[in-house]
Amino acid sequence: MRLVIAGAGFAGMYAALSAARLRDIENISPAEFEIVLVAPKPALVIRPRLYEPNPETLAAPLKELLDAVSVVYVQGSVVTVDTKARTVGVLNAEGARKILSYHRLVIATGSRLFRPNIPGLAEHGFSVDNLEDAIALDRHLHKLAAMPASSARDTVIIAGAGFTGIEVATAMPPRLRTIFGKDARPRVIVVERGPLVAPNMGEYLRPIIEDALRTADVETRLNTAVASLDKSGVMLSTGERIETATVIWTAGFRANPLTRKIPAARDNFGRLLVDRWLHVLSVPGVFAGGDAARAACDDIGNYAPMSYQHATRMGAFAGNNAAAELLGVPARRYHQKTYVICLDLGEAGAILTRGWDPEVEAVGESAGKIKRKINTICVYPPKTERSPALASADPERVADCGLGQKGEE
User: Fold this and answer.
1) Is the pLDDT of residue 408 over 50?
2) What segment(s) does the record annotate as region Disordered (predicted)?
């Protein structure tokens, strides 16, 4: 028997650990039931932290962990899927291809930043979408320090006022002062095509977020879109031109294009539609989790957003259930009743909320301490010892981080 997992992000890592956990519980040997994880590198990119300085440090090695739980690592990317023959095509960095057969498959390839066809964006825009992009941005910011002070050098435009855009914006002023000098007065502007900052975070949170932006001297341009970019500035839809050498695009995400290789229904974000056990609808033998799946979290209409906390739990359920089918034991119905948000607000601390209709639990430094715990402990892989690693992947308790994200049913 072979279970193949595509992707080594939060969902993929926990799918592998959870499947290995069930295999261990059922006392099945790795020789009888092989678990294979396919990814370009055996590393977990700490994507929730890529807005921070020193992004080159934000990848945690996985090979030792995978070896400890007897998961086979295959270097490369899944580029084709034949759901009838139950095979995947894997392409490695050298361009070599290989075919892997599977009995069950978990698609956990995450999401990518959506970059629209805006003139100049591909050539002159930056992002914090992946490790390479975050490193490129960090190097760019440091190169600016060698240039004479000017409006273009000292101005950063952030396109998008969602979760990522706010974290990038509030982190940017102190980050630039560290690079340029403590007396620097950088100008940071958030451009949002809609009428509100944090459009998905509720009217009760917005004043707190707006106050944090004001405290950080971050300007906003609402009901405004980026129309075009060049190497020295940006043109807005209002006709305003702003001189800048740095435009950071944070607006919009789509599921990895691998989901298009599955002959199944997808939503507007490219996510595969799955049932409550995370089976891809109408495709036997294929499961999906994390940002690759549109999954119901409960029975009252809440669906998992593209977030770290949902990816970890969905991955654990998908891996467990794929293994359960092969081992002939009951699967577990995915559920995630609690939605906790901890939004970094830079020098203003953070904001911690709970629930689908968010209720504020902590603001400022007290929430900032929780955010630092999440960013320095919770988002990292478990210890490489076999027993604690397997125990960490219990689908009912995975990535709880002391925030009460267990969703008992």
Assistant:
1) no
2) 385-409
